[in-house]
Amino acid sequence: MNWGSLGEFLAMGGYGLYVWGSFGMCALVLGAECRGVAQRRKALRQRPLDDDLDERPIHEA
Amino acid sequence: MSWTRYAAPQRFYPLAGRAIPWFAGLALLLAVVGLVIGLGVAPTDHQQGESYRIIFVHVPSAWMSMIIYLALAFWAAIGLIFNTRLASMLAVALAPTGAWMSFLALWTGALWGKPTWGTWWVWDARLTSELILLFLYIGFMSLHAAIDDERRADRAAALLALVGVVNVPIIYFSVQWWNTLHQGASISLTQAPSMATTMLAGMLVMTLAFWMYSIAVALARARVIILEREQGARWVRQLLGSA
Fold first, then answer.
1. Contact, B163 vs B150, CB < 8 A?
2. Which of B111, B231, B242 is nearest residue A18 as measured by Cβ atoms?
3. Phi first, then psi: what are they for A52, rounded to 5°?
4. CA-CA 20 to 30 A from B106: which of A6, B5, B56, B117?
């Protein structure tokens, strides 16, 4: 391990802003993307369905 | 039974549902291992100090932004040539993930560029072609969203995706073809890696984590797209609870 203390770890040798800005943005974006997909899925159940029922057999899909 | 069996959205849907937890679990596990290696075990770089640790998210996101684009173009082409709905839906499902990956590559690159080059951004071949990749993703999604008829949207967006494929080798070889501030490839098939083993291991594990994440989230989005687009089908109505 390279770090003597938590403070040292967070400081990243003076590059804390850049390192944590990078890792933090990744966590933020990937987390938001997952939540976005989950919300889109949830919204499906709350929306009325299209009117037309399509009776095509599945092998023509 | 043949591979075309799963070209039917009804059959693909449960299959993807079973696969997602595995990919998501692997992504989480690999991310934990990769972060421990990258932030804990890997030694300080003698030139860049700790700032180099950005590599553990920068390289994976940049690689994934290109790989996802190739996958998107592949499925878009299959959808165009064989007129299979599911292939087009997969292409559409991959686009937001690819766009986010190129955004992250640019963002982490800017945060790495500032301490190492003294600037957040330069109009350099590598950076500019990666920005064009982000615009291609946005263009693909916008064009698809702008056309009401989904199959026509699939075809138009597929054409755009295929034209844009030319940008991927440009990104990849830009550091060789042009004089650029961006460093060359960290690893290649023909030469020994130019970095410490633990750094390389961390980078590869994080790349695998991003890869597994991308598959999991794209499959989850593809399932939602199937439900959205196949609402005329009886099985979707039954699933959504109003048959």
1. no
2. B111
3. -80, 125
4. A6
